[in-house]
Known about the structure:
Strand content: 15-25%
Number of strands: 14
Radius of gyration: 19 Å
Strand order of the largest sheet: 3-2-4-5-6
Mean pLDDT: 84
Largest sheet: 5 strands, mixed
Distance between the termini: 27 Å
Order of helices and strands: HEEHEEEHEEHEEEEEHEE
Amino acid sequence: MAFRAASARLPARCLLSPKSFPRSSALRRLSTLRNVPVPYPTIDVCPSPTCSCAPTPPGLAIDHQLPLAGTKPPYAQHIVICTGRDDWPSRIEDEDGPNLAKELKGLLGPKGRFHNPNHPILITNASFPTGAPSRPPGASAFLFPSFQHIPHIDLTPPGLTHFVRSAVLAAPPLAPRPPPTHALPAPIILICGHGGRDQRCGVLGPLLQTEFRRVLEKRRSPSEAEPQVALVSHIGGHKFAGNVIVYLPPGLRVEGEAAPLAGQGVWYGRVEPRHVEGIVAETVGRGRVVTELVRGWTEWMREGLGG
Length: 307
């Protein structure tokens, strides 16, 4: 498998927030999404591992009864904040000190000046290194679906407004120049490991992170860009732990052809260490969705509505 650098910003398709619907309509919509066929190549069952892997710890209260399909929250963009830490308070906006999550939720949340109920934005912390200088206070983040890394975000009020207007919303009046960005050329794998919120993800997340790194390193050729794996804060559905998001770059190719999943994201639930090799082989390597584990998918720049 080969990865080509993403060269263009991909516009996000706006999805309606469930809160904008009456409860009965939201439930009907969720029921409908559970029956929507996956619009990408699929494989029904995750292949068995070819070698030994870490066992799943016993005693975790994982829900194996409710359907997984349709449980991904709808969102138009995802901001992944690099914190250099692998756990956070239950509410990431409650953390002391410079806090990009708090500032962004204040600007983009229901009471924020840039809130748009028809353009929900998912904001999570991640264990990726910050890479940003501490003086003046700064932060860094990954943006999807643009597949960009913003290495420095100014945390002053003017700097935050600049970032939101130019990099997140690209809304007028635009800042004179958006912050410098770097394209993400390889897959990004995010695993909920938010033990401060729920111990199921707190236990499974680090195990899955170790297993993904092991499998990816074993498969990667020296000429390929290195996929990145991180733990992230709450993404919903702790009862479906382990929860994994696989973002595949716009330049993803399979057997020399552009992959149908290029520039998209796939959400998986109930992932155990024994599933990691199969997810890497099928989703990262072949661009196929493993339907027995899928919670939903994105359809950026596509017609229709993903789970």
